[in-house]
Amino acid sequence: MQTVLGQPTLTGIFFFLLFVSITLYITYWAAKRTRTTTEFYAAGRSITGLQNGLALAGDYMSAASFLGIAGLVSLKGYDGLIYAVGWLVGWPIVMFLIAEPLRNLGKYTFADVVAYRLKQRPIRTAAATGALITVLFYLIAQMVGAGSLIKLMFGLPYEVAIIIVGCLMIAYVLFGGMLATTWVQIIKAFLLLGGATLLVLLTLYKFGFNYVELFSTVTAKYGDKFVQPGGLIKNPIDAISLGIALMFGTAGLPHILMRFYTVPDAKEARKSVFYATGFIGYFYILTFTIGFGAAALVGQQIISKIDKGGNMAAPLLAEALGGEIFLGFLAAVAFATILAVVAGLTLAGASAVSHDIYVGVVKRGKADEKQEVRAAKIATLCLGVLAIILGIVFKGQNVAFMVGLAFAVAASANFPALLMSIFWRKFTTTGAVWSIYTGLILSVVLIILSPTVWVDILKNPQPIFPLKNPGIVSFFASFAIGILVSLLTQEKEAEAKFESEKIRSYIGVGAE
């Protein structure tokens, strides 16, 4: 099969420029409606449940989801689905445990909820640190992915690609705030779901819309093991550890949690998770078919020749089925995917710096709206420049561990403290701070000592920590330390406020 990947094509450039033009117009429209802090951080709480569900799906379906899972399935078969299942199972946890109390108790960041009845400054410092580290690891993975993708799709130098993504991301957040970011994510969700659906229909058409035919072709080419578990993760404890990170990490991602403040009330927050789960579940069924379709119609040899990790399986399948035009469209969709996610991440990082650290810690809660929005815009600019620099520094690195680490940090540092602050009366400020830092430090240190970094990247012969993902250790350690320290450091004031917190989290009295 001859491919035009790596060469600039007119259709690719046309779709790319069309998407950029539309999203920049949205940013211009949103900029005129973004003046207050609520408008900048939370789109004036004017987004409906359906719109927020689409935006959540757009924020969550990253390049790792679209390109990564399809590629993993095309090269590893059945086991490539472990990420899709882990990421999807996290959503019911968000829906039943987190969405409603989060919307009722907080204003702009998840630190608002953790600090609701605890001491503000230590909590906000710890929570913002956890949020920023999660955002940075996730951001690096997306930026490196963007650079590699645009380099391959349009023939641009890697560094130029990173700078283009960085500048567009800064423009969306700096001028349009959450309103522009939301609509960029909604458009991207439509494009991605539409493009992937068309790709699946064209794939199934080749097999007479019969999955048995598709799997027969795949097993004839690669053997029965390709459709059986055990191809990617052989150690069951590693599988559980990865599953914990993916499931609970979803409920601790700052850019996902922040989206619940954009809806008017808790009912719409719940609705938005319901819609998001449906869209994301449907999308993962599509990636599964795309992966097997690419293995059958393109072949593993060509897929791994273009990209060792198999990340170009979906674009190669699009080219095989729809030619240069469909490839150009799908390339622009993949670019839109990355842009929407980095915009959400940047906004979450900026809000942690401005709302939690600048207003909550430095100004002790005494800053006017103009000062806070200015701080958020300066933070956006700094984060954007940092993302561009890190994207260039990490060029060519294996970024899979970055995404795994982002989820492990979110599951270990952010989720336990958030859950215990909502549901456990005896949770104290010291317990929360210890819980956050334990999860944060353990997850980062253990992943450095794991086979993924210690052996694959640092080229040491043996890993110090045997598991590839630290979730099973850092997640439970964060809970255990939080509980133990809280029992040793009683806080009568925090316990007294628990009843009023419970009433507000259930009924929403006093929520913005």
Automatic annotation (TrEMBL):
Task: Give the transmembrane region(s).
Answer: 12-31, 52-75, 81-99, 126-150, 156-175, 187-205, 239-261, 273-298, 325-354, 375-394, 400-424, 431-451, 471-489
Which branch of life, at top level? Bacteria
Show the CDD domains listed in the entry. SLC5sbd_u4 (cd11480)
The name of this protein is Cation/acetate symporter ActP
- Give the CC-aspect GO terms: plasma membrane
Q: Which InterPro entries match?
A: Na/Glc_symporter_sf (IPR038377), Na/solute_symporter (IPR001734), Sodium:Solute_Symporter (IPR050277)
Record's keyword annotation contains Ion transport? yes
Q: Does the keyword rRNA processing apply?
A: no
Identify the species of origin: Thermodesulfovibrio aggregans
UniProt KW keywords: Cell inner membrane, Cell membrane, Ion transport, Membrane, Sodium, Sodium transport, Symport, Transmembrane, Transmembrane helix, Transport
- Where it mainly occurs, coarsely classed, is membrane
**Care to name a GO molecular-function term for this sequence?**
acetate transmembrane transporter activity
The record gives the membrane topology as: Multi-pass membrane protein
Q: PANTHER family from the xrefs?
A: CATION_ACETATE SYMPORTER ACTP, SODIUM/PROLINE SYMPORTER-RELATED
